TrEMBL record:
Signal sequence extent: 1-20
Keywords, sorted A to Z: Signal
The name this protein goes by in its record: Lipoprotein
Superkingdom field: Bacteria
Location of the region described as Disordered in the Swiss-Prot/TrEMBL record: 118-152
Species this protein is from: Dactylosporangium fulvum
Length: 152
């Protein structure tokens, strides 16, 4: 009975710290929340901070579009979706910014590749992201062809 209680306590304590179920990780979890946004150039002029839509040249960038975080090898680690667009005035014109958050990413990876919709992924160093720097994904035009993730 005593061994059963000990096993139960260990199981609950490991599950509570987030370690259970992460068999492919090599170290104790050190999750962080990644904040970022997609900044689409060419938005219509208006009042900063108001809702906006991406211009027709970037129609794939919209609220609900998928955002994927992958490791350096392209293995998808986390998925979320874009929030609604918010207009921002910049020195080079107006941009429509779509925010996103990815939770519980491991700080032990050196980089993350962020892919929005079917656009090519962009790499970001983990250290600044972990320290609160936002991952800003610029979009200046229509989506181009993307490389196939699997060998042909």
């Amino acid at each position: 009975m005593r061994r059963l209680v000990l096993a139960l306590v260990l199981t609950l304590s490991l599950g509570g710290c987030g370690w259970a179920g992460r068999h492919d990780e090599k170290s104790k979890p050190d999750g962080f929340l990644l904040h970022g946004y997609v900044s689409v150039a060419g938005a219509a002029a208006g009042t900063g901070g108001t809702p906006c839509l991406a211009p027709p040249s970037a129609s794939d960038i919209a609220a609900g579009a998928p955002v994927r975080a992958a490791d350096a090898d392209g293995k998808v680690i986390a998925v979320t979706s874009l929030g609604g667009g918010v207009l921002a005035a910049t020195p080079d014109g107006f941009h429509c910014n779509f925010g996103f958050e990815l939770s519980n990413l491991s700080g032990s990876r050196p980089t993350y590749r962020i892919q929005v919709a079917d656009r090519p992924p962009q790499s970001f160093e983990t250290k600044p992201l972990r320290e609160g720097k936002e991952a800003v994904v610029p979009v200046d035009g229509p989506a181009g062809p993307t490389a196939s993730p699997s060998p042909s």
